[in-house]
Fold this protein.
Amino acid sequence: MIAYHDREWGVPVHDERTLFEFLILEGAQAGLSWETILRKRDAYRKAFDGFDPQRVAGYGERESARLLADAGIVRNRAKIAAAIGNAQAFLRVRADFTSFDEYVWQFVGGKPVVRRRRSQSDVPAVTPLAEKLSTDLRERGFKFVGPTIVYSFMQAVGLANDHLTRCFRFAELSEAGK
């Protein structure tokens, strides 16, 4: 968890596969700990063809059965179906906005929302902006994208800088967002 925090969490992401990866992993995490999902991350990458949305969007019954039998990932039928459906929705968003990156970053005006959180208790589970993005994603056919999941996604991919002000990453990522 420390390495993930120090190297990845909150760093602005513009890579399409990485955005898709975090969207799927955040949905898989629902009801579980993020540490559980991080331990399974390599297995997810293998199981979901490196998070290639084009390939995942084409998964059918055979691939769904393979995923349900894969002990390396969370074997939840609804989450697996959502991942496949989300790949299809991801491709539709790409067609409408040129890229998923362009779509998702428009919600924050193209740069991270920098918050000045002093303690962990200052970090909310959801924000109005996460609710807005969540609603839009659901209207576009995405599943497992409730406001709490979406806010976690936003934090993970750097749409929101929720590092505490005393954290060394806060200053580094605040500078990068300028």
